[in-house]
Amino acid sequence: MLSISVKEFLFWKKTQLSKGGDHQSLALLLDSVGGISTSDLNSFNINPEGNLYLKKNLESLESVWEDHLLNSSPIQYLCGITYWRDLKLEVTNKVLIPRSETELIVDIVIKIFGKKSQKLLFGELGTGTGAISIALALTYPLWDGIATDIDQDALAVAIKNYGNYSKQSNLKFLCGNWWTPLESFKGKLNLVISNPPYIPKDTYEKLPKEVKNFEPKIALLGGEDGLKHIREIIQKAPLFLKEKGWLILENHFDQGEKIKQLLIKNKFTSIEIVNDLSGIGRFTIGRYK
Ligand SMILES: C[S@@+](CC[C@H](N)C(=O)[O-])C[C@H]1O[C@@H](n2cnc3c(N)ncnc32)[C@H](O)[C@@H]1O
Q1: Which of 130, 179, 210, 284 could form a disulfide with 158 if both were Cys (CB 3.0 to 4.6 A apart)?
Q2: Facing residues of 121 across strands?
């Protein structure tokens, strides 16, 4: 631990922000690498007397900050950590950094099933860091879940994240292409969630460099029109869902109506396009028959 005066630290912090970047990213760096939490930061602002202790010196924190600013490297990858709902998750460049809008999937599930739902079986297709499945497994300790991903490295991150939060075993992890790992659960799933890669090819090519150059292409690109994976997921869903089982999909801002039609074609009912907090139809949900 390195001791420096709070005044020196606050001056350093102001200097870093004057170079660019935002408060939230610097706060993540200070917390995950420097060992200074957001509540520590607030108390230093109120009372800037005395000293504080850092896990890394200011030079090394500054070099990470400059890498973030100069190379557009996502701060979450540089720190190896991201926050999502009330979870602190490990991230590597093998997984998509879970987005804040995706947090709403858990609220949609809670709205459908209530907070005290009895035992059921859920699946997640394309779990990445495991964020959604871990949040559900923790919210519903009586539920059993199976989180899948095609990428073994992504699954390793998800397994580690689950282990950091739970010693239970109500969440299992399986590797494979969409429904393939769930072969032995045909007709048994009460709920399936997926935030699949849904970015259309043209849009993918124009993504900001902090996304395109760093986040896994396999987690983002949804084929020519963005719906390649969503089509596959919906077409096979009736084989795996129980009657009246729910399918919850995240989608691109303009895909809701097309997905609704795909769901209707595949005998889904109770279909709804659910807005995110910016009013965008970000999720499409339905029940199998
Ligand atoms: C948009 S990311 C979502 C990650 C995480 N669920 C989240 O919401 O942050 C899509 C995930 O699907 C996985 N994936 C891509 N193609 C897949 C496939 N054919 N079968 C299974 N998973 C796939 C990717 O590896 C990635 O982890």
Answers
A1: 130
A2: 144
